[in-house]
Amino acid sequence: MGTHKQPPGDAMTEITRRPLQLITLLRLGRVSNLPTVCSNVLAGTVLAGGNPSDWRFVTVLVAMILFYVGGMYLNDYFDRAIDARERPGRPIPSGALSATAVAVIGFGLLAAGVLTSATTGATASVFALLLAAAIVTYDLFHKGNPFGPTVMGGCRALVYTVAAAALGAATPAAIAVPAVAIGAYVAGLSYAARQESLDKITNLWPLLLLAAPAVVSFSAWQQGLAAIAIWLLIVVWSGAAVYLLARRPVAGAVPLAVGWLIAGVSLCDAAMMASIGAVAPAVTAVACFLATLLAQRYIAGT
């Protein structure tokens, strides 16, 4: 007849458990890196002559966020056996979330990304399906696969392509060069990231791929002081990260540099937009870079 009152201790346990569950979900999705996805969509749109104020821009942005978070969940799902040995604190081996739940969420987010992309047109749908396939391929086969970083780079290049297909005034082929450049950069940082647990880099030559966006955007020097400053920023930032990778002046230099390079994806976007005189969107991409660095202080980006 009366109401059951929960003991104070149990209530406090439940209160403290809820933030932990949210943090677990955010960690699985590496959500600190989402600003780089936003700048990718912005760059793919602007470089293809599209209008970011078009309603489809938000649609593509949501779709790419769904793809990214879904891919990160599946990465943990397929790596769960290795994580149990090497990183037992990860959400699945620690028991924070079941492997089945992680898989269902991951595949569900990819499916939602494909369906969301489909609302923007047939061509975008095709590239979205290719992106979903590339994400699953990477998550399944990246361990010990020398082509793993290349597949990861292809995923980021496809973000450009989906945005261009959905919003661009030109055909997706028109952004082939910048898409390849961002893909090369991500392949280079992915090569470094796969060795961060060792805190060393065995071969330095793949890091040359990091220079691709700076090379492609060199025409920023013809677009005024703001564009030049943005171009110099990506050169200096990437150079500082490479110094950490090559010299490892402090313990943990490799993971630190990988986080810097992930945030630097947005600087690549900014430099390539600045190279065609789109300075305002480029400044927005720089803001995404800063947002990523800030978010990585609370949720690890790798």
Structure description:
The chain has 302 residues and is mostly helical. The model is unreliable at 1-20 (pLDDT under 50). It has twelve helices and no strands. It has one domain: UbiA prenyltransferase (Tetracycline Repressor, domain 2).
Defining traits:
302 residues; mainly alpha; Tetracycline Repressor, domain 2; 12 helices; globular
Shape assignment: globular
| Percent of residues in helices | over 70%
Distance between the termini: 53 Å
Order of helices and strands: HHHHHHHHHHHH
Any idea what the CATH architecture is? Orthogonal Bundle
Q: In percent, how much strand structure appears in the residues?
A: under 5%
Mean pLDDT: 87
Number of β-strand runs: 0
Major sheet characteristics: none
Tally of distinct domains: 1
Question: CATH homologous superfamily?
Answer: UbiA prenyltransferase
- What is the CATH class name? Mainly Alpha
SSE inventory with pairings:
Blueprint: H1 8-28, H2 34-47, H3 55-78, H4 80-86, H5 99-118, H6 122-141, H7 148-167, H8 176-193, H9 212-216, H10 225-247, H11 253-274, H12 279-296
Helix pairs in contact: 2-3, 2-7, 2-11, 2-12, 3-5, 3-6, 3-7, 5-6, 6-7, 7-8, 8-11, 10-11, 11-12
In short:
The protein has 302 residues and is mainly alpha-helical. It has a single domain (28-296), classed as Tetracycline Repressor, domain 2 (Orthogonal Bundle), CATH 1.10.357.140. The protein has helices at 8-28, 34-47, 55-78, 80-86, 99-118, 122-141, 148-167, 176-193, 212-216, 225-247, 253-274, 279-296.
